[in-house]
Design goal:
The chain is an alpha/beta fold. The chain is built from 9 helices and 14 strands. It has a 6-stranded mixed beta sheet. Strands 6-7-8-9-13-12 form a 6-stranded mixed beta sheet. The longest helix is centred in the first third of the chain and has 18 residues.
């Protein structure tokens, strides 16, 4: 990342938050590649994924999981919001999350076929464009370019824990508008709503909701993007109308009935996947559009969701 881009990110993200993000990225990178440690870093994750891979192949269930990984579901749901202005009644938000596009390059074709004719007013991506937190991010960015060719603007995004802050200029060159503890105002005629986004609130903990909502007019409906639902308490306290998140993948590898075997988020159970409601805040935690670690899913199909906003009577 050159000095010009670093200065621009510091201005948008905040100098202290940028330094914290870069330092924590550096520490994670060092930890993952440190020998002789048994902590759950990159080496442990690679071994764990390898064991899952071997087990699934030996038991003959690999193909089943791989087919379910490609069985991407495009669903639609209505979301009544108390403060939604009439001009936004019927506004359609396509929600993607956890693409992990460099895990299995064949998934890009599945994604493009599913989304090619999708009708929406705005698309949002709640983080984890990459599968590998460290290393070369160019393969994921090249696959993302192919996906964005079938996604008309506007497309907004936030970073996940698998994404480095250095990729922001590259993501924006592809046509995404990244929200780094920032917001934009969406307009329809005379009506307006706020779309805000925060950085990863779980692993990096560099979210600043107060900064993201700075200058938002009182009483305006707020839709918040975050990689993880771990920010739910702050969102509820701030009066956010709708929180869209991901990160947990719905478990990705589940037992029959969707029972989660693995979970990577501290949020209470009600926030793990799907629609939820707390106080005046509605939310949706995506099961993830792609997969992480292994290109397998069991009893937890990937999803892309169109949230249709409705005025709450």
């Amino acid at each position: 990342m050159d000095q010009r881009h670093k200065q621009q990110l510091a201005q948008r993200f905040g100098g202290r938050m940028l330094r914290q993000r870069l330092e924590r990225q550096r520490l994670r990178h060092a930890e993952w590649f440190r020998k002789g440690r048994l902590r759950f870093g990159q080496r442990s994750l690679n071994w764990f994924c390898s064991l899952i891979n071997i087990f699934c192949r030996m038991t003959g269930i690999y193909r089943l999981g791989y087919r379910q990984f490609h069985r991407l579901r495009l669903t639609e749901r209505e979301v009544p919001l108390r403060r939604l202005p009439p001009g936004f009644d019927g506004f359609r938000i396509l929600h993607l999350s956890d693409l992990h596009l460099d895990l299995d390059l064949s998934f890009t074709e599945t994604l493009v076929k599913t989304l090619r004719d999708c009708r929406y007013d705005a698309c949002v991506i709640t983080g984890d464009f990459h599968n590998y937190t460290v290393g070369d991010h160019r393969p994921a960015l090249e696959e993302l370019r192919k996906v964005l060719e079938v996604l008309p603007p506007p497309v907004y995004g936030v970073l996940g824990n698998h994404d480095s802050i250095e990729t922001v200029p590259l993501l924006e060159q592809l046509g995404l508008r990244m929200l780094l503890n920032e917001h934009v105002i969406l307009r329809r005629g005379a009506d307006e709503i706020c779309l805000a986004g925060v950085d990863d609130p779980n692993i990096y903990q560099t979210d600043r909701l107060d900064r993201a909502l700075r200058g938002v007019p009182p009483g305006m409906a707020v839709i918040l993007l975050a990689h993880s639902p771990a920010i739910h308490r702050q969102a509820i306290k701030a009066g956010v109308d709708l929180l869209l998140a991901g990160h947990i993948h719905g478990g990705q590898i589940c037992l029959p009935g969707g029972f989660m075997v693995f979970r990577n988020d501290p949020s209470p159970r009600q926030f793990w996947r799907g629609a939820w409601h707390a106080g005046e805040t509605s939310g949706y935690t995506s099961r993830g559009t792609g997969a992480c670690g292994v290109p397998l899913r069991y009893f937890c199909p990937p999803e892309a969701v169109v949230h249709v906003l409705r005025c709450k009577g």
